[in-house]
Amino acid sequence: MAKASALAKSGTRSRAYSIVQEINSILGSPVLRLGNDSYFEVVRIPTGSHTLDRVTGGGWPLGRHIEIYGDEAACKSYLCYRAMALSQSRGNLCAVIDAEHTFDYEWFEQLGGRADELLTAQPKIAEDGIEAMMVLLGRGDVEIITVDSIASLSTKQEASRAPSETAVLATQARFMSQNLRRLTTMNEKTVVLWTNQKRSKIGVFFGNPDTTPGGRAMPYYATVRIELKRAEQVKAKKAVATKGKLSDKDVQVGNWVLVKNKKNKSGMPYMEGSFIFDNKAGEIDETSELIQLGLEDGIVKAKGSGPVKTVYSYEDYDGEIWEGNFKQFKKFFREYPDLKQELVECVQEETLNLSVPSQGEETNGKVTEDEE
Description:
The protein is built from 11 helices and 16 strands. It has helices spanning 2-27, 50-56, 76-89, 105-110, 126-139, 156-159, 171-186, 217-221, 286-297, 326-335, 337-355, and strands at residues 44-45, 60-61, 65-70, 93-97, 118-121, 142-147, 191-197, 199-200, 210-211, 224-242, 245-264, 272-278, 283-285, 300-303, 311-315, 321-324. Helix 5 (126-139) runs parallel beside helix 7 (171-186) and helix 9 packs across helix 11. The longest helix is centred in the first third of the chain and has 26 residues, at 2-27.
């Protein structure tokens, strides 16, 4: 019975393959494919953050729209810059549509990017930015396109409106809806990173009072939506002159940032994480990510309470136990890079394990012994 079923499946696959060949020969291009074609494989690239790699299920998926939105100064642009810098290090082309006109090439190079190889546009109207994206997507050799940000895209209709004229409602929403359809059909293997802001809904006081500019199209078209929220401030003692006197004061040097995957069509949604964004360094504090993920994975232990009193411990491959508070672990990682790399590999291995789906008993038409 099982063998007859396997033969029937084999015959169906042959007919399906013949149909694909026939239709593609008529159309002159590979429009139709079988569902197990490698074209549909979800290929991921590093986000530049261990936390984001975990939350997204292994990295940004190629060929998809990604929306990163949230509070101001919650490192939305940083995540895009860092992902593009890593992409360039792998020999790929990247582009940024800088609608906010705030691109900082020095910061980009500080994060490891090469500004002289980054395709950059600061369009005066949104239509120009979209047309540039259409051309870049049509080339097929650009790995990441960043749009920073949706809220800053000003359409031709809006830009040409006189100050005294009444604004036309939902201009930006209609623009996004129309052009996301065009961009999606052109995109094959490019990650499009869209940053966005949060706004308060007018007249809404209960439930969820927040929304994002650009209408409902982006939440539908995005494969992944990442929400970032600034949490507690990270402070450190610093000599500050006040009223002619020098004294030590607690000064904000960073922020805890909470990350939540609000939508994920290529992995598990609603995964959460957190990290510290270091204002002085202008980047994510990697130590905070490794400790947080290490705690989740059970390879780092914690005792005590509070950011200063909490003591962490980690047992390395050689059985040696490293113990200390957050600052001491930063020092460990700085002085013993092999220790840091060991913890990075442990965290990445667990991220990979969580992102790989479980395989069923039957694959590629092979019949298990139980079916026989």
